[in-house]
Write a structure and sequence with these properties.
single chain, 196 residues
Length: 196
């Protein structure tokens, strides 16, 4: 069942289209979360104190929050794969445009998630759920749409990680098995991998 959702994104023509797709999905669900929270307004009886009553629990909550921030910025594992696709020479190394791209990417991630966390905390205080969408409760159709965007974002993210595998399979079929590099080969190779 999970493979079915991967079929269409695996056929996108370029990684640029795929990154754009993932970016739109991320921007969509995060915007829904913070705009809906802002529209709901500060809840009656909201408290901004620490949730835990012991120092140990506060330390664990702090470390858990750091882990969640690290997870939100988890795109670093695919950076080397992306950098490998950028032409590089001694006069014009790929690390310069790559560094600019990484900085821009992290700024975009921060612009997506910081408003969610700050506005969510302002509206719900210390009773905010880890997923702000759960705290919103209504309108159900909007929360469902945002969750659908999350699912589509995760599906697209898998595709970014799978691109090197797709390239390796296609290179093997063309170089070792002597297939012609056609659109049909691309289609069959990707569908075979995703649908297994």
């Amino acid at each position: 069942m999970g493979s079915t959702g991967q079929l269409l994104p695996s056929l996108l023509r370029s990684e640029k289209e795929l990154r754009g797709y993932c970016g739109v999905m991320s921007l969509s669900y995060s915007t829904i979360a913070w705009v809906s929270s802002l529209h709901k307004g500060v809840q009656p009886g909201v408290e901004y104190t620490l949730r835990a009553s012991t120092t140990t629990r506060n330390v664990f909550n702090f470390l858990s929050a750091l882990g969640e921030v690290a997870f939100a910025f988890a795109g670093h594992s695919v950076v080397l794969e992306i950098q490998a696709t950028i032409p590089s020479t001694p006069e014009n190394p790929s690390k310069k445009p790559m560094w600019k791209g990484v900085v821009v990417a992290y700024i975009i991630v921060a612009l997506c998630y910081f408003p969610v966390s700050m506005i969510g905390y302002w509206v719900f205080g210390n009773s905010v759920d880890d997923n702000v969408l759960l705290s919103l409760e209504k309108p159900a159709w909007l929360i469902a749409a945002a969750n659908m965007f999350v699912v589509m974002h995760v599906i697209g993210s898998y595709q970014v990680f799978a691109q090197p595998v797709f390239d390796m399979i296609q290179a093997f079929l063309v170089l070792k098995m002597n297939f012609k590099p056609t659109g049909l080969l691309r289609f069959v190779a990707r569908i075979s991998y995703v649908g297994k």
